[in-house]
TrEMBL record:
Keywords: Phosphoprotein. Signal peptide: none annotated. SUPFAM superfamilies: Casein kinase II beta subunit. Transmembrane segments: none annotated. Regulatory subunit of casein kinase II/CK2. As part of the kinase complex regulates the basal catalytic activity of the alpha subunit a constitutively active serine/threonine-protein kinase that phosphorylates a large number of substrates containing acidic residues C-terminal to the phosphorylated serine or threonine. GO terms for cellular component: cytoplasm; protein kinase CK2 complex; UTP-C complex. GO terms for molecular function: protein kinase regulator activity. Residues 229-247 have a biased composition (Acidic residues). This is Casein kinase II subunit beta. It comes from the Eukaryota. One of its GO terms (biological process) is regulation of transcription by RNA polymerase III. Tetramer of two alpha and two beta subunits. Tetramer composed of two alpha chains, one beta chain and one beta' chain. Residues 225-247 are annotated as: Disordered.
């Protein structure tokens, strides 16, 4: 993959794209391959979205040779940036584009999650709309599964449609091993070391609901994404579940032994039943 990238990039020096992605504020963008840009299939429908489409495309691919005034040049330049963004949203969902964005993600080019408990987990760009000029780009943390505003105003004004609403989900579908374990560490407010009553009650309630959910998922054999034994609650839940199962087993044994007792076979089975069942036998007889 990487060899392919370096080859095609070094064979062709892309002045405009080089300039564009190295410009301040454009750090979120990756370089779109020449090959991708010249495949008309990838550009379907964009000619009606962008003013002076062909000139803009010529500029992006460094074949622009129109003799025009500065004003016109500026208009085409603006169109080229818009066109690049729109193609970018499609490109980063392609195999090549995903690889390039993955490299940037690993280098934390999109910043790190500001949430303390996320331990500087790298962020991914996210569009809240696929339609241009509606919502600026936001950042997504896969660890806390929340979204954030970019720190820099340069980044905060980039159109979210240049990244799209699906990119981060596609990335994790293609690279499922990159999905981080769910964050369970939570901030608990305290006053001089004592938990604040209302907040603590809420956390307990939320934890019990989450416990129920995880138990249900486990029964359905659905992976919840939580690391095993990551919190104490999990163990508590398991204990509870075991108790439930034990109680049921005891009841079954009681009935079984009662039947056997009536049949006069208790002495023979007595040595084989475990301690818990032995207690049950006592209860059953009494
Ligand atoms: Zn986070």
């Amino acid at each position: 993959m990487d060899d392919y990238g370096t080859e095609s990039d070094s064979d062709y020096t892309s002045y405009w794209r080089d300039w564009f992605i190295s410009s301040r504020g454009n750090e979120y963008f990756c370089e779109i391959d020449e090959e991708y840009l010249t495949d008309r299939f990838n550009l379907t429908g964009l000619n009606t979205e962008v003013q002076y489409y062909q000139y803009a495309m010529d500029l992006i691919t460094d074949v622009f040779d129109l003799d025009c005034d500065d004003e016109m040049r500026e208009t085409i330049e603006k169109s080229a940036r818009h066109l690049y963004g729109l193609v970018h949203a499609r490109y980063i969902a392609s195999t090549r584009g995903l690889t390039k964005m993955l490299e940037k993600y690993k280098k934390a080019d999109f910043g790190k999650c500001p949430r303390v408990m996320c331990n500087s987990h790298p962020l991914l760009p996210l569009g809240l709309s696929d339609i241009p000029n509606l919502k600026p780009v936001k950042l997504y943390c896969a660890r806390c599964e929340d979204t954030y505003n970019p720190k820099s105003s340069r980044h905060a004004s980039i159109d979210g449609a240049y990244f799209g609403t699906s990119f981060h989900s596609i990335l994790f579908q293609v690279y499922p091993t990159l999905v981080p374990a769910k964050s369970q560490e939570r901030y608990v407010p305290r006053v001089y070391g004592f938990k604040v009553h209302a907040a603590a009650a809420l956390v307990r309630w939320q934890n019990s609901v989450r416990g129920d959910m995880r138990r249900r998922l486990r029964k359905m054999e659905v992976d919840s994404g939580f690391k095993d034994g990551e919190d104490d609650l999990e163990d508590e839940d398991e204990d509870e579940e075991e108790i439930d199962e034990e109680e049921e087993l005891q009841m079954q044994l009681q009935q079984h032994q009662l039947v056997e007792y009536r049949g006069g076979a208790t002495a023979a089975t007595g040595a084989l039943v475990p301690v818990a069942a032995g207690d049950a036998q006592m209860g059953g007889v009494a």
